[in-house]
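Objective 1b of the project was to move from sequence-level analysis to a structural picture of ligand recognition. The entry below was assembled by the postdoctoral researcher (A.K.) and checked by the PI before modelling. It contains the amino acid sequence of the target and the SMILES of the bound compound, S-adenosylmethionine.
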Amino acid sequence: MRTAALWATVRELVVDRADALGRPLRVLDLGGGTGELAVPLAELGPDLVAGVTVVDPSPDALAALARRAAESGVSGRVEGRQGDADTLAAVVPGRDFDLVCCHGVLEVVDDPALTLRQLTAALTADGDLSLLVSGRLAAVWARALAGELGQALAVLTSADGRYGPHDPLPRRFDLHELTGLVHDAGLQVQRWHGIRLLADLVPSSALDSDADRSALLAVERALGEHPAYPFLGELGAGLHVLARRG
Ligand SMILES: C[S@@+](CC[C@H](N)C(=O)[O-])C[C@H]1O[C@@H](n2cnc3c(N)ncnc32)[C@H](O)[C@@H]1O
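Corresponding predicted holo structure:
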C-alpha cells in the first residue's frame, strides 16, 4: 500500500459499514491491478469482507493478483475478472456491491462521468464509493519546484491538468471538479482528504531511512488534521473521496 493514510481510511470505512450492516461487505475494485488494495481488504477477514472482485484490463496484473492472493491465503475471497470501465456491467452482472473502490483509474478512463455512473449502478442502494485520483494542484507545485514553470502553468490552466504531450497521465482533477462529478453520478460525498501532501516534494535523498519516512508521515498527518488549514488537503498528490449512494 502506497500510503498509510489511504489504507487507514478504507479500513475504517469497512469496519464501520460491516458493523452497521451486521454482515461482511461485498467489494468491487475497478482497476485493482495486482491487488495492492484487494488483498489487504480480504486479509481483514471473512467477518468484515465477504469477497473482493477485481476488474482490470491487464492479464498480467490479474495473474499477479492471483499469486498475491494465494500467497496471502485469501484466494477463496479474491476474484479477478478481465474487463474495464466500459465493460463493467457485462463483467459483473450481479452489481450489488457494498463498497466500490476506484483508485488511480479515473485519470485514464475514456469518460470519467460515465465511469462514475457505472460505478454508482454497481452499488447497493446505500453502498459506498472510495475514489482516489491524482490532484492537479500537487502537480503544479511539483513542476514549479522542479523549475518547470511553463509546465506548472499548463497543469493549472489546461482542461485536463496535463503539462504537455509527454505527461504520462491523461488527466488530473481539482477537488471541486471531482466532487461535482461524484454528485452528478448520484452519490453524496461523505468526506475527503488529501494524501501525499509532501511526499512528492521531498527529495528522495531525504527519505533514506524508516525514521525519515516516519517523520514525513507524521508531518503529513499533522498538516492534514490541522484545524487551521483545512484547504491543505487540496495540495495532496492524491485526492481521496468517500461517497455514498442514496
Ligand atoms: C495506476 S494503476 C492503479 C492500480 C490500483 N488501483 C492502485 O491504486 O494501486 C491503474 C490500473 O487501472 C487499470 N486500467 C487501465 N485502464 C483501465 C480502464 N479503462 N478501466 C479499468 N481499469 C483500467 C490498469 O490496468 C491498472 O491496473
